[in-house]
Amino acid sequence: MNNAFAELLTVWTAGPMLSIGLTLAAFLMATWLFARFHRPLWMPPVLIAALLLAAVVALSGIGFEEYEQGARWLTVLLGPATVALGVPLYQQMHHIRALWKPILVTLPLAATLAAVYALGIAWLMDASPLVLSSLAPKSVTAPIAMGVAEQLGGSVSLTLGGLLITGVLASVFVDWGVRWLKIEDDRIIGFALGLNGHAIGTARAFEISPTAGAFSSLGMGLTGVFTALFLPFAFPF
Amino acid sequence: MVLLRGFLVLVMFFLLGEALRVLADLPVSGGVLGMVMVTFTLMLRGRVSDELAEASRGLISVLVLLIAPGVVGVFFIVEQFYGQWTTVIVALIAGTLLSVLTTLWLMKKVSESAAGDGRHE
């Protein structure tokens, strides 16, 4: 019985279909669970999907290496998906024109600081170069951040973990900050959510209002482009 | 067919981005360069075709599916970064708190002064 299962596993993991099937199933289940539990801020769908997958991959004995090799057939699509982000960015262009002054002043400084604060703290705490280059793109939307981490020689897995934590924290901290600084402009709230919390922050912004959502997409897109273009040049390792 | 045509455009821009990365020796990923090129092309054309808009929406809506396999890796590198996790967590919490407050404060100040300028003009 055990032998037959081992043999079946060898056959199944010879091609990528098992990984693809598992990933699709986890994605659909995570989407369903997320809606079922009233869209909790601290538990985005990507975290649910990853937890489900990690459990199956570890318990079934497939192993992460084997799983990842098959899942690569899906993850190669991140390339064109990153290109696709240019379309909503273009569609937000009229927002950029209307508010270009605050955006132009805030974006380069805030996007740089989003990376520098965390890097500075990690550096002071003696983090290894691998950890530093993995954390550098922490505020950037995932497909772009994965590219940046690869370019800097970081660990993509650690980057994605950092991204996830950052997105969840940013949603919570913006909530606090807005109350503390008495900000009522949805455009500012949205922009701050997207700039710091990428896609997870943007999902939160859409719950506040459509305006906040639009500005969050904008902040996310611009931070992504800015960080991806400048971080690899500025990073001193 | 409509989706495929839009997807072909995205793949072509990705390949162009990769070409630019290699030929100009840029440390930026091909996808990002492709995204910048798409944005500029659309700005020059002044409109986005339905095919491209459809294909983009489709891909963006399954981003979680494409990213999830990478996130799974986090649970398998716990040992690899043994002793570094406190650093990682502290840097993320304090760094994110500081950068959120900075962004909000900056945006508030700048948009207030922009509104002030408007009143004086």
**Largest interface, by Cβ-Cβ below 8 angstroms: which chains and how many residues each?**
A-B, 103 and 74 residues
Helix content of chain B: over 70%
Provide the low-confidence segments of chain A as ranges. none
H/E element sequence of chain A: HHHHHHHHHHHHH
Helix amount of chain A, in percent?
Answer: over 70%
Major sheet of chain B, described briefly?
A: none
Strand tally of chain B, please?
0
Structural class of chain A: mainly alpha
Q: Give unreliable regions of chain B as ranges.
A: none
What general form of chain B does the structure show?
extended
Percent strand of chain B equals: under 5%
InterPro entries (chain A): CidB/LrgB (IPR007300)
Keywords (chain A): Membrane, Transmembrane, Transmembrane helix
Organism (chain A): Marinobacter fuscus
Main location (chain A): membrane
General description of the model:
The complex is a heterodimer of chains A (237) and B (121). Chain A is mainly alpha-helical and 237 residues long. Chain A has 2 domains: 2-74, no CATH class; 88-232, no CATH class. Helix content of chain A is 82%, strand content 0%. Chain A contains 13 helices and no strands. The longest helix of chain A has 25 residues, at 100-124. The mean pLDDT of chain A is 86. Chain B has 121 residues and is mostly helical. Chain B has 2 domains: 1-76, no CATH class; 79-121. Helix content of chain B is 79%, strand content 0%. Chain B is built from 5 helices and no strands. Chain B has helices spanning 2-23, 30-45, 50-61, 63-72, 85-120. In chain B, α1 (2-23) packs across α2 (30-45) and α1 (2-23) crosses α3. Chain B starts with a helix and ends with a helix.
